[in-house]
Write a structure and sequence with these properties.
By secondary structure, the chain is an alpha/beta fold. About 40% of the residues lie in helices and about 25% in strands. Strand 2 and strand 3 form a beta hairpin. Belongs to the bacterial solute-binding protein 3 family.
C-alpha cells in the first residue's frame, strides 16, 4: 500500500522533531558547564556582592556541578524574570530560595522540596508585639515592604491589601528599609527572618515559630527536561543521605 505524500511528510516531520529535540543534560555534559540563574538578593540562599555569589543554594549549585563533572556559571536574574530567563534558555536551572508553587509547576519543572518554611514578618527590634497578626498589619497606616515578583508580594497583595504596600526591586533593600524606618514590616520567610535577626540586632523576626503559611523551597528546570530533573532530584537525595545538605545549611547559618 502506497502512503499519501501528506502522511509521508507528517511522519518525516515527526521523526525530525524527535531527533532534533535537545537534551539539556547532554548539552551540559558536552559544553562542560551548567548555567544557574539566581537573584543574588536573598540571604542566606543567594547573595551577590558585585564580584561573586555566595549562599546555601550557591554552594549546592557548586556541589551539583562537581557531581556532574562540569563547571558552574552563575547568571543574575530577578524574581520577576525568573521563569522568563528559564524559557529563554539563559540558564539551565534556577536556584536561590525559590518557593514551590502551582503556577511555577505549570510553567516549568520543579524539583522536590528541600526545606519547609512559612511566611512571617521582620520588624524593628521591640516592635514584635505590635505586628504579630495579619489584622494588626493590614491597616492603611502600616507600611509593608516586599520584593517585586516574588511570593512575598503575592502574600501581601492577598492578605495585606489594606496596608500601604511599598515595593522594592531588590530584596536586600527591604530589611534596610525596616532598620531605617522607611517601612514598618517586611514580609519574608522564616529562614530569611531568622538570618537577619541573628546578624542585625536592630531587627526581630515575628511569628517565626508559628508562620502564617507552610511551603517548601525547590529548584526550577525548563519545561520538559525530564532527564535533567531526574538527575537533580537524585543528587538532592544523595545530599540528604550523605548529610551534605545539613553541613551546607550549618555553613550558611541555617542551622
Amino acid at each position: 500500500m502506497l502512503l499519501k505524500p501528506s502522511l509521508i511528510l507528517a511522519a518525516s516531520a515527526l521523526m525530525f522533531s524527535v531527533v532534533a529535540q535537545a537534551d539539556r543534560l547532554e548539552d551540559i555534559q558536552k559544553q562542560g558547564y551548567i548555567t544557574v540563574g539566581t537573584t543574588g538578593d536573598y540571604k542566606p540562599f543567594s547573595f551577590y556582592d558585585g564580584k561573586q555569589f555566595s549562599g546555601y543554594d550557591i554552594d549546592v549549585a557548586k556541589y551539583f556541578a562537581a557531581e556532574m563533572g562540569v563547571e558552574v556559571k552563575f547568571f543574575q536574574t530577578t524574581w520577576k524574570g525568573l521563569l522568563e530567563g528559564l524559557d529563554d534558555d539563559k540558564y539551565d536551572i534556577a536556584m536561590g530560595g525559590i518557593t514551590r508553587r502551582i503556577s511555577r509547576q505549570m510553567a516549568a519543572e520543579q524539583t522536590q522540596g528541600y526545606m519547609t518554611f512559612g511566611k512571617c514578618f521582620l520588624v524593628a527590634q521591640g516592635r514584635e508585639a505590635s505586628f504579630d497578626t495579619l489584622a494588626e498589619v493590614n491597616r492603611p497606616e502600616v507600611r509593608v515592604g516586599v520584593n517585586i515578583g516574588g511570593t512575598n508580594e503575592k502574600f501581601a497583595d492577598k492578605f495585606l491589601n489594606k496596608a500601604t504596600i511599598v515595593r522594592f526591586e531588590n530584596n536586600l533593600d527591604v530589611p534596610k528599609a525596616v532598620v531605617a524606618g522607611k517601612v514598618d514590616v517586611m514580609v519574608t520567610e522564616t529562614p530569611e527572618a531568622l538570618y537577619y535577626q541573628v546578624i542585625n540586632k536592630k531587627l526581630d523576626a515575628v511569628r517565626e515559630d508559628n508562620p502564617f503559611t507552610k511551603s517548601q523551597f525547590g529548584y526550577l528546570i525548563p519545561d520538559g527536561e525530564q532527564r535533567l530533573l531526574n538527575t537533580v532530584n537524585f543528587m538532592m537525595d544523595e545530599m540528604k543521605l550523605k548529610g551534605v545538605d545539613e553541613a551546607l545549611m550549618k555553613q550558611n547559618s541555617l542551622k
